């Protein structure tokens, strides 16, 4: 690996997935993977690239199954995680997961015809617990889902993290309603955006999107993530390539350092790397 990547490696990778092919995938979810992707595999990627900490993002194809993730957190204290739960999740269970290193819930709505009603009594209860635990809501949805979801989450007073530039496709560009909704939410001070997953929207100019996010919301609203093991590509990408992308999107090293500090605080990681 090039020495420059070690020097410029981010402090925190805020999004990766771990799973085995024999885990309980939700009904109808494809399982085309050529191998397992374990926590130990992920930690080796972090070490090779010089990244200090990592965050396990709840995989939508595993639904609310998170035993494998909790076991990984117990083995690797440098990791944090988000989980997928229903709006009726017991408060005691969420408190227990908080002690284990879970720092948020994930709402993945890309395959839903409409987003969940986050203003319903059940979701208001869940979001109240999320706010009390100082967790965040990790959002990944269709571009038409994002504006109402972001408005509802802001009304609930929770921290929000938007995946992959907020772009699931090649139409969610700088002038789209979803991107404008993201900028509005970021300016309110409780929303962050992950610079990650450019292969999910290949026709967009991600460097221009990063510059717009930075100019409108400042460096304290940005995070970086690898999206390892690149599920849509079945692992066919190198981890260090994702760091090269970050260095291209955000040439200013001071901004990249601030992004790492953002992640240390949001994901409740030790200050000393």
TrEMBL record:
<feature type="domain" description="Amidohydrolase-related">
    <location>
        <begin position="12"/>
        <end position="269"/>
    </location>
</feature>
<dbReference type="InterPro" id="IPR032466">
    <property type="entry name" value="Metal_Hydrolase"/>
</dbReference>
<dbReference type="GO" id="GO:0016787">
    <property type="term" value="F:hydrolase activity"/>
</dbReference>
<dbReference type="Pfam" id="PF04909">
    <property type="entry name" value="Amidohydro_2"/>
</dbReference>
<dbReference type="InterPro" id="IPR006680">
    <property type="entry name" value="Amidohydro-rel"/>
</dbReference>
<dbReference type="InterPro" id="IPR052358">
    <property type="entry name" value="Aro_Compnd_Degr_Hydrolases"/>
</dbReference>
<protein>
    <submittedName>
        <fullName>Amidohydrolase family protein</fullName>
    </submittedName>
</protein>
